[in-house]
Write a structure and sequence with these properties.
InterPro entries: S74_ICA. Keywords: Coiled coil. The chain is of the alpha+beta class. The protein has 4 helices and 25 strands. Among the domains are: 50 residues, no CATH class; 70 residues, no CATH class; 135 residues, no CATH class. Helix 1 packs across helix 4. About 2% of the residues have low confidence.
């Protein structure tokens, strides 16, 4: 305020009541230093307050509390939570240092931090909050997480805004290019996966793993009003197979094939006669209901017609049980059932949450009725344990079965044509024999008549001599 002055003498200092000191050196520079002892404000009035640096090295040219706020004047970078920022703006957790090579950097936002296994909250990310949205529908986020093997994927989630540890994965994008909708984690066995369904217009409430007593159990529930996973307004083109419960169209132009020759109809008929058609219901009744299917069993079909079977990795409902208890023990999650589960350490299993989200985890230890898992991002009160992943899940090529049936039908048609021709031939022969038999009978009658006439014209006293 002009009441305090410092001499131009080198090394002279003047102290203020807020703990700061003003000093002057021989080069004519004024220095400000010390430790604040009370709140202090800097009044700029209508003037700019500039901080300039001519540094050619280093990374902390202006800082607030070390890594809380850091300016690298050499790289033109600003860091929040890091003393070594990269990019234009680097947000980091707990002073994590970015490992991104500077050769990849262009001006941009970089968020650095530890990642979590599975589809959890932690991991570098961005949160979006809509203040006018419904309660528990205000927040969505995008964050980087990882698989148990260390592969990264982006998680897009709807998360709670009331302090509870719940989230709902919208979709995930793996660093391998795979996209998963409605499931936490970057699945490795397909490029695009859609998990879960959305009720179609007019659809009845479907049974769920947590509500198995639902009345939707008849086959009528599985018409076009079924809950849908994918709805397309146009056609879907595939360069390979499309697995479907309804019909499909398959490219069959001769110009894309090396034709080896016609099939053996007789052999195909023999094969078809060995296939056993079976009535069954699905174990997963929450998904399929209790309707009866009349189809083939893959293992039986494989024994007589192996070319119609394909094997792949998938999950089977070999446990299919609701958890009795879920506890955190020594950093792991233990799930207890009311029955023996038959799982082993290292098994990959599928769990279902109460929001119908599928979660894929790995078993780390087992007892008869409980097991621990890794890969759970957040623990819920209950899980439905679907079952384990098997490497030899069998899939039936019903197109191959249909063509086998066509070939066998062609053989039956040939046999029927031959049988009809033979019947016609035999019928003609029978008619010819009947005509011949009639002629023989007529001849016999004429012979009898002739013999009678001869007897009648013989003189009295003659006799017929036997020879």
């Amino acid at each position: 305020d002009g009441t305090g002055w410092v001499s131009k003498k080198s090394g002279a200092q003047l102290g203020a009541d807020n703990g700061l000191t003003v000093g002057y050196n021989s080069t004519g520079n004024v220095g400000l230093g010390g430790t604040l002892s009370k709140n202090t404000a800097i009044a700029q009035e209508s003037y700019n307050l500039n901080f300039t640096s001519s540094a050619t090295s280093g990374s902390s040219h202006f800082t607030v509390d070390g890594s809380t706020f850091n300016v690298d004047a050499v790289k033109n970078s600003v860091g929040l939570g890091t003393a070594t920022p990269v990019g234009r703006l680097n947000l980091a957790q707990d002073n994590y240092t970015s490992g991104i090579s500077t050769s990849y950097l262009t001006p941009g936002l970089i968020i650095t931090g530890p990642t979590e296994v599975g589809g959890g909250f932690s991991g570098p990310g961005i949160y979006f909050e809509g203040k006018d949205n419904n309660v528990n529908e205000k927040v969505m986020k995008v964050n980087l997480t990882r698989t148990s093997a260390g592969a990264g994927f982006l998680n897009f989630q709807s998360v709670s805004d009331n302090g509870s540890a719940s989230n709902n994965t919208v979709f995930s994008i793996g660093n391998n290019g795979n996209v998963v909708v409605g499931l936490a984690g970057a699945i490795q066995n397909a490029r695009f996966i859609v998990a879960g369904t959305q009720p179609a217009s007019g659809a009845a409430a479907a049974a769920t793993y947590f509500n198995p007593g639902s009345t939707v159990t008849s086959s009528a529930s599985y018409a076009w009003t079924n809950p849908l996973s994918i709805y397309a307004t146009g056609s879907i083109l595939s360069g390979a197979y499309i697995a479907a419960y309804a019909g499909t169209l398959t490219a069959s132009d001769s110009r894309i094939k090396h034709i080896k020759g016609l099939t053996n109809n007789a052999a195909d008929l023999a094969t078809l006669s060995k296939i056993k058609i079976t009535d069954y219901v699905m174990i997963d009744q929450a998904h399929f209901g209790d309707r009866t299917f009349k189809k083939v069993i893959a293992q039986q079909l494989e024994s007589v017609y192996p070319s119609a079977i394909t094997k792949r990795a998938d999950y089977i409902p070999d446990v299919y049980s609701l958890s009795e208890a879920v506890k955190i023990e020594n950093g792991t999650v233990r799930i207890t059932l009311n029955k023996a589960h038959g799982l082993q350490k290292g098994d990959e299993i599928k769990l279902v949450t109460e929001t119908e989200q599928e979660v894929l985890v790995t078993v780390t230890s087992v007892t008869e009725k409980s097991f621990t898992v890794s890969g759970l991002a957040d623990t819920q009160a209950r899980y439905f344990v679907y079952g384990k992943k098997v490497p030899d899940f069998r899939v039936v090529d019903y197109d191959a079965l249909s063509m086998l049936n066509v070939s066998a039908t062609q053989e039956l048609s040939k046999q029927l044509q031959y049988a009809n021709a033979r019947i016609a031939q035999l019928t003609a022969q029978v008619a010819e024999l009947a005509e011949l038999r009639g002629a023989v009978a007529d001849l016999r009658r004429e012979l009898v008549k002739a013999a009678v006439r001869q007897v009648n014209v013989m003189p009295k006293g003659s006799r017929i001599t036997s020879r």
